[in-house]
Structure formats: structure tokens, C-alpha cells
Design brief:
Chain lengths: ~600, ~575
């Protein structure tokens, strides 16, 4: 038998791929060949490790040496030094952002230390296109156990007992949802996986689909068995071509081995899966709009009741969960609800995957136990705020969520704490903002997103968010007036109460939460015509300090000739003429121009 | 049917368990404002005007789609509800042109009424972006001004769910959502029948009939012109609604008087030419039946239906009766037979028709309809437009005397008047066809088997030793299903009547608004009463019809009749 002494795992997730990991893999293969190591070293393309900021990532086992930002040119060095001579390539190791220490081993990196990787356990560890690797790590055991040893009632009970709640946004108890669809009497029922991930900055579902697609398929098959469905759809955005490709490969493999399709495990249970590629409308993540889209209609939500469990896809009882929810299910069945409950809080069991983005050192995906504090996520895992800037807020829950200030950093992260703090779990997007971020501008950004993604069906969402956006815009441009804050509040409360679907009902949240915690920033814009974060261009003013040497470069680059001054004397900006483009500040060699 | 009891504003209401909260409230006499809701259409819950508080619901709920349940407690008039509704109206008005006073829909506009009802006095969002579209008015029948559109989606639903034409759809997102046609083309470029049902259900002035009243005023005031008018059967039972009367009022005589006051030289009746249509179409049917002609023969009076078959089933055109519609026959004889008889130069005749129908405007400009040597019908106005002209002229409609139509194109039968309702053309044709074939008086002239309002009705009528299998269809959706069967060869009928609009012409796209099935039924009952009250009830017994054949046309299907009263159809290639 061939003896493989080392495995080189190269991340093949979308992030690393776009950073060049395809070429890295290619180079590894040629360099290993050249060195004559092909029989003893194996190169594996894996799914995402989550540490996308530092990609392309390469991990060399058995040591578990973690190399980051590996370029195709670096490969030769790794092969020569590490694989051939057995010495670590120091310069490619990860360095902790605060201590600047090099960390050779994967498991010792701060980003991973506080994580509890359950859903993401296989991501980055296995070849997602090889079902055998999934099976080797316990894959399809949960399905086998459910089908061969449990009744459908027992499966639903086990999921109820696990306390699993929907990972897509609202956190509805999954077992309870299944019991509704199970109770519906109909010879045809559908099961849908919502993979229409669309929150700005969120990519945890894509990562799971790319890195461990079988986990989702297994979760779906278990759910289908539990509710009595024989047909399912995975609704995945067409912008996720790699995820779609891997899903297709995985479905074909699972069908071949009898884990999907007809007569699964010889039990007579059938479950056939289809992939429906979505065209990228954010609102299609709303379950009724998603089903309309599968049916070939325009993706627009419809009022509930009737709920999908009663009348869903093609009018049949339908159960719909998101990717991460399904990915939790095999573990619950395989290891039991009691094991599942060892992690998390009483009302929010298990883990949650967060996408860390914004002004944070370690952007990427992190899976953490529910109940961890926001501070731990941002500082221990995320490595703190970039460039040593001061933390201002963290936006959680995507366009439906809210912004939490520094005073709430010790809030435990679970469904109910977040709601009571005016935010929500959402799909797990976490955007960190520093002192340079204007909170009115943040609210405007998210409202602009929901407004342009509104389906246009109901008046409050279509027209209301537009008017709120206009008010926010005028505030950031220095044209806000007395009464604007109250008008925003009045509209926000009414729109939440009157919009048709979740998108409209939560669209005002970013405004409400920033008003709650950062009202003084709104007031500064409106009454003092200034942006405390100096972020709103229209409110910025540029002045030349005494550091000016009179070189005249600023006057030369100014497109509107707003700067005058004699050579070698301090120059002056005419604020009336200045269009606040910032060109002078960027050009000044003496840092003599300040924005205020 | 199972009942449930709920409480609305403290009042206990017992209703059908499948009702919506809105229906239950209306049954209890509690008014809840609505915009996207229309009783003929599937409720959507989109406009959010009908919001109410319901026990157990986290947010306000749209009562038009919220199901009743035992013990449900509903509040329709709380500060929370009022604030939300007012905001909805305020938001709609902020994105709506402020030209209500000069809008064609003024006083018939549901948005205007609701804004007044809810006491919206201030719009807090002035100076914001407003939608900008060009007006689509290049077709003869309908005008679409999307700046007035509030995106209630009623036009989309009526066009798809009732008419099966799918002309409209939502397009775009967010603030730029719009009701679009295919490729955003004008209606004349796409497969639209001009039936005007969209205009009937549009709550604002976003879709209206093309207003041709100015052309009529101009003709009337031109002293060199001899302006004659014909009025379609269903106008007499609907015009009253435009003038403040209850649905189902029969206003034939007052309408004639009003038209004279407006200045028409002669007031004639399309019912006359409906009788003429029966003579030609009836004989055509007998000919097809006895000479192995193309069967089933299908009626061709409804121009929306003719447009639809030309656009979507051009291969089935040989099934259409070649007999012109009553409007078109009237146009052909008024500038020939009447001109001759009255000694008027036909080039000075302006032939106006008052129709329940927007598609009739398009029919009148069909290039082939000029067999008189002139444009057979010059101007078509709808019932709504006639109502506006009567108001504009300051005529006190209530106080008008009852007057009679002019001769010779004013005499008609009960068979003609029921042309205005689904099944009427078939029944009128049968009254003549059976007597012509059997040469015996019918013992009972009502063919109740073809009456009713089901979208498809069929019957077998014994005619001598022949069993004639007939079908009656209304709404274009039902017509499409029927044409699919004809195309597939599974429709073994001899004769099919098709009317494009729900209920037939009484539900036409040019009839007064609002309209719903209660109103249509009342108009229909009124038409049937007109038939019953008629002394003559069979087309072939109309003395003016007998006279026109004797003096002018010769025989039905004869050479002259053929050149003036029959037409041909052309496939329309639309997107």
C-alpha cells in the first residue's frame, strides 16, 4: 500500500480561489513531481477555512502547519524547505495582529482558538468533491440512524429536544416547524433549502455548500424523512457557481451510493433533490417569494397565512430551512440532542457561524458557541479593530439588523439578547465599524440596500423606505432640518407595523438602532451641520494648518481653483468654492491639510 | 357551510369560516378602506390600506387576506391603525401627480376618495423623487399614464386571472417597480385585445379609455355635418350609474332625449343592426350547417375577442362568422341606405357610436371597415364618455322626458337588446335560426339553457330533426380554453358565442365604474326586462329589417348584403 507521509491542504473556497489558489494547487503538483515526492505527498483541494482575509491558505499535515497568503511563487519554497527538508517556512506563517508573534500551528491561531467548529468541522479538512471523505468522518451516519432505527415522530422529537432554531434570520424552532409540515395531510410535500444568501458581507452558507455539501444534503434527507416529503429543492443564487457545481457533484455521488433518490438505505424512503438557481434578488430569501421564484413567477412575497407548512410550493405543504440549519441536523441525529445541547445557551443551543467584516483585523468566517460575548468575537477571534482605531459599533443581522455600541460589547450573542438589544441574529453578518464611520451614513447604506431590493409590492416598503432614505440623504448632506428625527421615528414604527413581509418589517431597524444608540450623531448633522466621524463629504471642511510650506501642490491639484497663496507662504482654501473632493489633502506632502 | 364568530370593534360577527376579516367587517357594516382589493379579483394584501389589529398578530394585518377564526378579536379603528393607513395614503400621494382637478378619473378615483375619507391634509414628503414615465396613448382605445399608477396590481390580476391575456406584469424593484408590458412596449405593439378590463378596475387615472368626446363636440358644432348616433344595447342599462342612478336602471328614453339635447341630428339604435346581424349571422350559420362549412361557427360581435383570436389563434379565423358586428353593420348602412333614404350626402354624415366597450374604438378604425365608401363609423365613445358629455352640457338627466329613437334605424326587437349580455347573441340567433329552419313559430322563445353566468355553458338545441350543439363563453380566459379545445378538435359544437368581457357587454371595458358581479347582474336583469317588455322579440320580425331587405339589401347573404355586411379577418402579429 502506498504510504502518504504528508497532506497539503489548499483552500479551494471562492475567497482563496479569487486570490489565486488555483495556481497554487497547480504549482504544488508540479513542484512535488519535480522533487519526486508524488508517492508520499498528497495535494488536496478543500473547502473554505474561514480565514479568507489571509488566503490563499495552505495547511500541511501531519504537523498542521498553517501558511497564509501563499502566492504561486511561494510554493517552490514550501516544497523545498518544508516538504523536502522538513523545516518550516517562517515568513509564510500567520502573525497575531496584536502580539505580532508567528503562530506555526493551525489550532493555536487566535482566530480558531475560541471557535467551536461543528457545522464547519469538515470545511477545509476534506475534499468536498469526495463523498468517501465525508463518510470517513461520520457522514450519513445520522441519516442511516434516522431511517433505520427511528420513527418520523422520533426524528422530529430529537430535533425539538436539541433546541435547534432557524439559522436564517428569525430563529424559529426548527423541530416545531417540521412538526407543522409533518402534520399537514397531503400525498405530496416539498422540502426546500434556502441558499439564497444575500446579506451584505455574509457568506457562511456559500462556504458550507462549497466546503461540505454532503452535510446539507444529509440534513435535508433527514428532514424529508421526518415530514414525509419525497422531493426537495435547493434554491441557490446563480452567483455561487462553485457551490452549485459542488452540490451537483455531491447529489450525483449520494444518488449513486443510495443516500438520495429511490429506496434510500433500502428502506423504501425516496427523496429526490433539484437545484434551482436564483437570479439574485435579495427578497427571494423570503420564503414565499422564494417559492414563487421556484414556480417560475416573479419573486414577490405573499401574505401569510396560509403558511408554507399548509400551502407552500405549488400549493403543497412545504418546509423550508436555510443551509446552516440543515447542516446542523446530521450532528443532532448522529450524536444526539443531549450532546448538541452541551453547547450554547438555554434558549439558543449549538453554534452560530458569523461572517466578520468591516474594520476588523481578521475578516472571515467564525463558528462560535451561542452565548459568547460580542467582545470575544471581535477582539479574541477577530483580532480587534484595524490600525488600532477606536471601536464604534458592530452591525449585526444584515439589513434587518441593528448597530450595537461599545457599551453592549459584553452582550451574550444569542437570539433573544440580540432582539432585546434592538438587533437580530439574522444570517450572521457582523460588520465592525470604527471611529471613522458615520452612523447616519451606515443607516443610509442599509436603507439604500433594502429600498433597492424591495420587491415593490407593498406601499410602506416600496414608498416608505424611499422617503426615509431621502431624509437620511439630506441629513448627511447638511440639509436636514428640525423634525427629521421625529419623522424618521414615526415612519420607522409605522413601516415595521404595516409592511407585508419580513424585509419591509425589518427595513427600518438600522435607522431605529442607530437613533437609539447614536442619536447625537444625527443631531450633530442636523443642528450643527457637522459629521462627527468626518465621513460625510458634503459636511466636510478642509483647512490648511501652519505645517504648510507653501509648495503650491494643493493649489495645482485643486480642480476648482479654491486654493490660493504666495509661494513659500501658507495657502488658504476658499470654503465657498471648495467642492470637498479631498484631492488637496491626498496630494499634500506635509500633511498640512486637515478635514474637519 | 361552517360558521365562526369573531369580534370586530366589540361587535360579535358570525360569518363563513373561509371569509376574510374584510368580508366579515363589510357584512357587519364596518367600512375598511381598500385599494388593491377588488371583489372580482384574488386578494393580494399589497397596498396595506386595509390594515387592522388582530388578536395574536405581532404586526397589523391586511384584512383582505387575513382569515377569520373563532374568537378572533379585531379592531379597525384605533390610533395605531389610523396612523398606519394615513401613512400609506400619504406615501402614495407623495408619488402621485397633483392634477386631480383636471384628471379624467376625477370623482371616480378611489385614491382621491380615500385620501378625503382618511383626512389626509398634509404630505410630509415634498420635494422627493417622483416616478417619471411617458404616457402610452398611441393605440385607439386606452391611455396608460404610469405616473398615476399606485402599483395595486389590479390590472395585472384582471388581465391574467380573468382575461388570460397576461399583458401586464410587475417589473423593476424598489421605488422603480412598475407595471410593465412585454419589453415595455406600447399596447398597440403587444398582444392586447383592448378589452379595457384593466381600465375598469384601475382605481386611479393610470389606465383610462381614450377620450374622444372633443371630436364629438367638434362634429356637433360643425353646421355642415349631419351627425348621427347609435347606442349599443347595454348602454341603456348602465348609463344611469354615470349619472347618479342605481345599477340596473333602464334609461333608454332619457338617453335618447339627452342625445337629442346634445345636438345629434338623428338618434338611432345599435339594436337595429343587432337584428341585422342576426339575419346575416343566422343565415350564415344555416348555410355552414347545411353545406358542410367550417364548424363550429363562432360569433364575431365582440371586438376584444376578435383581436384576441387574430393575435393568438390566427389558424382558427375560418371559424369566425364573417358577419360584421352590429356597430360595423350600422356604420355601413347609415352612410348608404339611410343617406339615400334621407337624401343626405354621405360625405357629410358623421357616424358616432356609444359603446360599452373600449375595443370598439379600435374596431372602428380597422382599415377594411369602409364598405360604404367612407369610414363607416367615425367616432366611438364609451358609456363613461357619454355620461361626461351629459354632465358637461349641464343636462338634468333625471328631469328629461322619455323619447323614442328615430326611424328608420331605430326600430328593434327584444332579441337585439339581449346582445348586451353573455348568451344573448346565441339566444337571439336561435330564435331566428330555429324558425327559419323549421318554418314554425317557436312555442317558447326564451332559451333558458343558454342563460346564466358560468364562464362556459353548453346546450343541445333540437332544431327540426337536427340536434344543434352550442356553447356560450365569456371572458377571454374561458375563450382561450375553448379555442385550445377547438384547435385540438375536442370541441364538437356547431355554434359558439364568445364575448370578451365578464358578463358580456354589460361588463364591458367602457362601462361605468365601479363594477362587480352584483352590479353586472343588475345590469343584466335590466336587459332581460327590456327583452320581456318588447312587443317584437325576434329579429326577423323587425319591420324595419324586413323593409331594408325589401328596399335595399335584397336577401340575407345576398350580393349587396355580402358587400356591406360581411368582413374578413387578418392575423395580427404582436409581441
Amino acid at each position: 500500500m502506498q504510504h502518504i507521509r504528508a497532506h497539503v491542504l489548499v483552500c479551494g473556497g471562492t475567497g482563496c480561489m479569487s486570490a489565486g489558489s488555483g495556481k497554487v494547487i497547480e504549482n504544488f503538483k508540479t513542484e512535488i513531481e519535480k522533487k519526486g515526492l508524488s508517492d508520499e505527498v498528497m495535494v488536496v483541494e478543500t473547502g473554505c477555512h474561514g480565514f479568507c482575509e489571509h488566503g490563499p491558505l495552505v495547511i500541511v499535515y501531519p504537523e498542521g502547519t498553517f501558511y497564509c497568503r501563499v502566492t504561486p511563487e511561494d510554493v517552490k519554497d514550501i516544497v523545498e524547505t518544508h516538504l523536502y527538508k522538513g523545516r518550516i517556512v517562517e515568513r509564510l506563517l500567520y502573525h497575531e495582529p496584536l502580539s505580532l508573534e508567528a503562530v506555526p500551528s493551525y489550532k493555536d491561531i487566535g482566530f480558531y482558538k475560541k471557535q467551536e467548529r461543528r457545522v464547519l468541522a469538515n470545511c477545509g479538512r476534506i475534499n468536498p468533491e469526495a463523498i468517501e471523505e465525508y463518510i470517513a468522518l461520520g457522514g450519513y451516519e445520522g441519516l442511516a440512524k434516522a431511517l433505520t432505527t427511528m420513527t418520523t415522530d422520533e426524528v422530529v422529537e430529537e430535533v425539538k429536544k436539541s433546541g435547534l432554531r432557524g439559522r436564517g434570520g428569525a430563529g424559529f424552532p426548527t423541530g416545531l416547524k417540521w412538526s407543522f409540515a409533518k402534520a399537514a395531510v397531503n400525498e405530496k410535500k416539498y422540502l426546500i433549502c434556502n441558499a439564497d444568501e444575500g446579506d451584505p458581507g455574509a457568506f457562511m452558507d456559500r462556504s458550507v455548500l462549497e466546503g461540505d455539501p454532503h452535510k446539507v444534503l444529509e440534513g435535508m434527507a433527514i428532514a424529508a424523512y421526518a415530514i414525509g416529503s419525497d422531493e426537495g429543492y435547493i434554491y441557490v443564487r446563480a452567483e455561487y457557481p462553485l457551490a452549485i457545481k459542488r452540490l451537483r457533484v455531491a447529489i450525483a455521488q449520494a444518488e449513486k451510493l443510495g443516500f438520495l433518490g429511490e429506496n434510500i438505505f433500502g428502506t423504501g424512503f425516496n427523496f429526490n433533490l433539484h437545484i434551482k438557481e436564483g437570479a439574485g434578488a435579495f427578497v427571494c430569501g423570503e420564503e414565499t417569494a422564494l417559492m414563487a421564484s421556484i414556480e417560475g413567477r416573479r419573486g414577490m412575497p405573499r401574505p401569510r397565512p396560509p403558511f408554507p407548512a399548509v400551502a407552500g410550493l405549488w400549493g403543497k405543504p412545504t418546509n423550508i430551512n436555510n443551509v446552516e440549519t440543515f447542516a446542523n441536523v446530521p450532528l443532532i441525529l448522529q450524536k444526539g440532542a443531549d450532546w448538541y445541547c452541551t453547547c450554547g445557551t438555554e434558549k439558543s443551543r449549538g453554534t452560530k457561524v458569523f461572517a466578520l467584516t468591516g474594520k476588523i483585523n481578521n475578516t472571515g468566517l467564525a463558528e462560535v458557541p451561542m452565548g459568547i460575548t460580542m467582545r470575544e468575537i471581535i477582539y479574541d477571534i477577530g483580532g480587534g479593530v484595524i490600525n488600532g482605531k477606536k471601536f464604534k459599533a458592530v452591525q449585526i443581522g444584515g439589513p434587518s439588523g441593528g448597530c450595537l455600541p461599545e457599551s453592549m460589547l459584553d452582550l451574550p450573542v444569542d437570539y433573544d439578547s440580540l432582539i432585546s438589544a434592538g438587533a437580530m441574529m439574522g444570517s450572521g453578518g457582523l460588520v465592525v465599524m470604527d471611529e471613522d464611520t458615520c452612523m447616519v451614513d451606515v443607516a443610509k447604506f442599509f436603507l439604500n440596500f433594502t429600498q433597492s431590493e424591495s420587491c415593490g409590492k407593498c406601499t410602506p416598503c416600496r414608498e416608505g423606505t424611499k422617503r426615509m432614505l431621502e431624509i437620511l440623504t439630506r441629513i448627511t448632506e447638511g440639509n436636514g432640518h428640525d423634525g427629521d428625527i421625529e419623522l424618521l421615528e414615526d415612519m420607522a414604527v409605522n413601516i415595521k407595523d404595516s409592511a407585508l413581509c419580513g424585509l419591509g418589517q425589518t427595513a427600518p431597524n438600522p435607522v431605529l438602532s442607530t437613533l437609539k444608540h447614536f442619536r447625537h450623531e444625527y443631531e450633530a448633522h442636523i443642528y450643527e451641520k457637522r459629521c462627527p466621524a468626518h465621513a460625510c463629504e458634503k459636511l466636510a471642511s478642509y483647512t490648511i494648518t501652519d505645517a504648510c510650506k507653501g509648495c503650491g501642490i494643493c493649489a495645482k491639484v485643486c480642480p476648482v481653483k479654491a486654493i490660493a497663496g504666495d509661494p513659500k507662504r501658507k495657502h488658504v482654501i476658499d470654503p465657498i468654492v471648495c467642492i470637498k473632493c479631498g484631492a488637496c489633502m491626498a496630494a499634500c506632502p506635509f500633511k498640512a491639510i486637515v478635514k474637519g | 357551510m361552517d360558521k365562526v364568530t369573531l369580534t370586530i370593534n366589540g361587535i360579535s360577527v358570525t360569518t363563513n369560516k373561509n371569509s376574510s376579516v374584510l368580508t366579515a367587517a363589510r357584512e357587519a357594516g364596518i367600512y375598511i378602506p381598500t385599494l388593491c382589493y377588488h371583489p372580482d379579483l384574488q386578494a393580494e394584501g399589497a397596498c396595506r390600506l386595509c390594515l387592522v389589529e388582530a388578536s395574536g398578530a405581532r404586526t397589523l394585518v391586511a384584512s383582505c387576506v387575513y382569515p377569520v377564526s373563532e374568537g378572533l378579536v379585531v379592531q379597525t379603528n384605533t390610533p395605531r391603525v389610523r396612523a398606519a393607513r394615513k401613512l400609506v395614503v400619504e406615501l402614495l400621494l407623495a408619488n402621485h401627480p397633483k392634477d386631480c382637478l383636471s384628471c379624467q378619473k376625477s370623482m371616480d378615483c378611489e385614491l382621491q376618495k380615500i385620501a378625503a375619507d382618511l383626512g389626509v391634509r398634509k404630505i410630509r414628503f415634498t420635494g422627493g423623487e417622483m416616478k417619471a414615465h411617458t404616457i402610452d396613448d398611441t393605440n385607439p382605445a386606452l391611455v396608460r399614464d404610469q405616473e398615476k399608477c399606485i402599483l395595486c396590481g389590479r390590472c395585472i390580476r384582471v388581465c391574467s386571472d380573468v382575461q388570460g391575456m397576461d399583458v401586464y406584469s410587475f417589473a423593476g424593484r424598489g421605488f422603480h417597480t412598475m407595471v410593465s408590458t412585454a419589453f415595455e412596449e406600447g399596447l398597440e405593439k403587444i398582444s392586447c385585445s383592448y378589452c379595457g378590463q384593466c381600465a375598469n378596475v384601475c382605481p386611479t387615472g393610470a389606465i383610462v379609455e381614450k377620450d374622444d368626446t372633443a371630436k364629438v363636440w367638434e362634429a356637433i358644432s360643425d353646421t355642415t355635418k349631419h351627425v348621427v348616433v347609435q347606442t349599443a344595447p347595454s348602454v341603456r342599462v348602465a348609463l344611469g350609474e354615470e349619472l347618479g342612478m342605481p345599477a340596473g336602471s333602464v334609461v333608454t328614453g332619457k338617453m335618447v332625449a339627452a342625445l337629442r339635447q346634445l345636438g345629434f341630428a338623428k338618434v338611432f339604435d345599435t339594436d337595429f343592426s343587432a337584428d341585422l346581424t342576426i339575419m346575416e349571422e343566422g343565415h350564415e350559420f344555416i348555410k355552414r350547417l347545411t353545406t358542410n362549412g367550417v364548424l363550429p361557427m363562432i360569433t364575431s360581435c365582440s371586438p376584444g375577442w376578435v383581436n384576441m383570436i387574430e393575435q393568438r389563434y390566427p389558424d382558427l379565423l375560418p371559424h369566425l362568422s364573417t358577419a360584421k358586428s352590429p356597430q360595423a353593420m350600422f356604420g355601413a348602412v347609415v352612410k348608404t341606405y339611410y343617406a339615400q333614404k334621407a337624401g343626405v350626402d354621405p360625405k357629410n354624415i358623421v357616424s358616432v357610436s356609444v359603446m360599452p366597450c373600449t375595443a370598439k374604438k379600435a374596431e372602428a378604425v380597422r382599415p377594411e371597415l369602409c364598405d360604404s365608401g367612407f369610414r363607416d363609423v367615425d367616432i366611438v365613445i364609451t358609456t363613461r364618455e357619454l355620461g361626461r358629455m351629459i354632465r358637461e352640457a349641464g343636462i338634468d338627466f333625471d328631469a328629461l322626458p322619455v323619447e323614442q329613437y328615430d326611424s328608420p334605424l331605430g326600430e328593434s326587437t327584444g332579441a337585439a337588446v339581449i346582445f348586451g349580455t353573455t348568451g344573448g347573441v346565441m339566444e337571439a340567433a336561435l330564435r331566428t335560426v330555429v324558425e327559419v329552419i323549421t318554418k314554425k313559430q317557436l312555442p317558447k322563445i326564451e332559451f333558458t339553457e343558454v342563460r346564466g353566468l358560468d364562464s362556459v355553458r353548453e346546450a343541445v338545441i333540437p332544431v327540426g330533426d337536427l340536434n344543434v350543439k352550442i356553447a356560450v363563453v365569456h371572458t377571454l380566459k374561458a375563450a382561450r380554453a375553448m379555442m385550445d379545445r377547438v384547435r385540438a378538435g375536442t370541441a364538437d359544437y356547431h355554434f359558439i358565442e364568445v364575448m370578451a368581457c365578464p358578463g358580456g357587454c354589460i361588463g364591458g371595458g367602457g362601462q361605468p365604474v365601479p363594477v362587480n358581479w352584483d352590479i353586472r347582474k343588475q345590469r343584466r336583469e335590466a336587459l332581460l326586462e327590456c327583452d320581456e317588455a318588447s312587443i317584437l322579440r325576434k329579429s326577423h320580425e323587425n319591420p324595419e329589417i324586413i323593409a331594408i331587405y325589401k328596399d335595399f339589401l335584397g336577401q340575407p347573404l345576398g350580393e349587396k348584403a355580402h358587400s356591406l355586411l360581411h368582413t374578413h379577418y387578418t392575423p395580427q402579429n404582436r409581441k
